[in-house]
Specification:
The protein is about 35% helix and about 30% strand. The protein is an alpha+beta fold. The protein is globular. The mean pLDDT is about 95.
């Protein structure tokens, strides 16, 4: 259900989207609103379920994880069978993202694994239970996944996109138990104070501060972000797989598309489309208008695109089982 918000709320959401650990005082200074007002407004945004929580954006590659994207199209199911499939995927520690979508596939999944063999075991286990209900599927492995700050919240020429790289080509970092516990805790408690962290992990505030700073310096934690209720903001979610006619202007096209205010994510995968990106936008009409503008600007370079609309989000985990 759409919830009305004003310009102050939008400014607050915009600042939290860039850094959810920002203090009330600092946020107030940036948008020129009293600290007490900022605190009250955030509490109201949480109460109205516009903000559902806060997570630490983590570079999973530095933890040694590979992210696979799996699309499934089902056949000959019943409500009971579909519920069995849903329950199985919800309980799987390998499933990070689980969406119901429109388009050629019914389910979209993100699967964490430390190796191709771990993924293979997940897939074989799933097929042993539900293969008769699969008519088709598509698998790709992500080599890059970038999140962007949502500059559409408050349009401004000075409001540049911030990039949060969560899958990259990088070395794996060695972490100790405190690091792992801290990452797990902050994965859905990103605004927790150092006092809360120290109590939860049973460590001193000084130790908590040290480990948090170290994880940030090593770029394992690459940001702190809110979890938005897109429906409450009047937004729809689309994923686009776009193909090029030729690659002469691929970099220019990519930069143009990814700079669009409503493009919130992009992925690079093996054996997939030439450019993938995710859109948060007001309506299907606005989405088509945006895509038409891309094709109009590059009529000889964009061959075609497919899109999937998010129907329902069953599951989103912000950290693998460590």
């Amino acid at each position: 259900m759409l919830v009305e918000i004003d310009n102050i709320d939008r400014k607050i959401l915009g600042e939290l989207d860039k850094n959810s650990r920002i203090s009330y005082s600092e946020l107030g200074k940036r948008i020129r609103v009293a600290k007490e007002t900022v605190k009250y407004r955030i509490q109201q945004l949480e109460r109205k379920n516009i903000i559902r929580g806060y997570y630490a954006a983590i570079n999973f590659s530095k933890l040694g994880f590979i992210l696979y994207r799996l699309y499934l199209r089902l056949q000959n199911t019943s409500p009971k069978i579909e519920q069995e499939i849903t329950n199985y995927l919800l309980q799987s520690k390998n499933v990070s993202v689980f969406y119901r979508t429109s388009g050629p596939f019914h389910l979209a999944l993100g699967i964490w694994a430390r190796s191709v063999w771990e993924y293979e075991q997940f897939w074989l286990d799933f097929k042993s239970k539900f293969n008769e209900y699969l008519i088709s599927y598509s698998l790709s492995m992500m080599t890059e996944y970038l999140e962007f700050s949502r500059i559409y919240l408050l349009q401004s020429k000075q409001n540049e996109k911030i990039t949060f790289p969560t899958i990259t080509k990088t070395d794996v970092e060695k972490l100790n138990n405190i690091d792992l516990e801290l990452l797990t805790f902050l994965s859905n408690k990103a605004r927790a104070s150092l006092v809360e962290i120290s109590k939860k992990l049973n460590i001193s505030i000084v130790t908590a501060r040290y480990h948090l700073k170290d994880l940030i310096n090593k770029k394992i934690i690459i940001g702190f972000r809110p979890i938005f209720n897109l429906n409450a903001l009047g937004l729809e979610y689309y994923k686009v797989d776009l193909s090029f006619t030729k690659f002469d202007r691929a970099k220019e096209i990519t930069q143009h598309i990814l700079s669009h205010p409503n493009v919130a994510y992009t992925e690079r995968t093996l054996v997939s489309s030439d450019l993938e990106f995710d859109v948060e936008i007001e309506s299907f009409e606005k989405f088509i208008e945006m895509m038409d503008s891309f094709r109009a600007k590059f009529p000889n370079d964009i061959r075609d695109y497919e899109y999937y609309e998010l129907i329902y989000n069953y599951k989103t985990n912000y950290i693998p089982s460590l």
